Amino acid sequence: MATGRGASGPSKRDRREEARETARLMREEAAKKAKRRKVIVQSSVIVGVLAVLTVVGLVIYSSVSASANVANPKNMISGGIVLTQADQAVTSAAITGGDAPTPTTQKLDGKTAHIQIWLDYQCPYCDQFETTNSDQMKKMMADGTATLEIHPVAILDSSTNNKYSTRSAAAAACVANYDPDKFFDINSAFFANQPDEQTGTGLTNAEILKLFKDAGVESKAITDCVNNQTYAQFVTNRTKEAVASKQLANPTSGGFGTPTVFVNGERYQGGFTDATQFATFVATAVKDAGDSGSVTFPKKS
Prior knowledge:
301 residues, alpha+beta, six-stranded mixed beta sheet, two-stranded antiparallel sheet, 9 helices
């Protein structure tokens, strides 16, 4: 009868080889699993990146589409309306889609004041400036010595006034679009009927339309425009631009406020209730500019 290790089981060498083979197979299996995990992780990252890019793309597309779909009024391509007489507006196309406004370029001839005003129909200081200077600006235009560019913005919206700043500015844009030669009259009418800033609830759309009718402005198109707040987003966009503009920022406060008034590109920083002071500033601004070509203000940044 045979005796010895060979007869009773595998030899030590065989067991060592078997262990090595088992270890090799385990390493290979571990490597395969690691490779599969890497592929899964990479795939997940790629899918995640694609998902993020898709969301970003949709946001950008939606933003661009929203901007492109904003209703912009005619005759306010600069963001404001330019008047050469109290009853004569400069006509222009509307801002195209999501494009930025085109700043107005005016000829400097040594005798004409190009007055630009950013105002809020809820702003009491704007009312003071309007009440004080409206008649003399109207006379300057009649004399051919001034143009007036009015930019309605909305910085005084509140729940109390039912967003009157935006609603009134949007309503004014309706007039700019459909009856631009009456803009000066409705601009004055807004301030003559200005609600109290602290306690007023803002004029209703019906009251705004009554105000327009009393100023000689009435049509179904304007009624629908006011009631639908067709140009509310236009006003919001112009307000954001004004607030962000370094050129319009008050050098003292560093922020934007209303009224903001420029004449031939020079900021007026005088009182709002002193007509003589403003008239003197206008004359000085015209003299300082002289016959120096043209002025474009505000300049595109």
